[in-house]
Amino acid sequence: xxxxxxxxxxxxxxxxxxxxxxxxxxxxxxxxxxxxxxxxxxxxxxxxxxxxxxxxxxxxxxxxxxxxxxxxxx
Length: 74
Hints:
The protein has 74 residues and is mainly α. It has one helix at residues 2-60; strands at 64-66, 71-73. Strands 1-2 form a two-stranded antiparallel ribbon.
């Protein structure tokens, strides 16, 4: 009989712990996704700036920037 009581208390304890942790786990996952989205946006910004910088350097040097290929043609 003691086994049933201790087993039942263990199950109740695990369920209470899961109910307590669940909202924090969801918040953690959301924060991770938001961090990844910010990181992706920063990479896109850096890529766009690098392309703009290359294009500006190309035209300042008297070259022709090819939008399709992203190559400077002197």
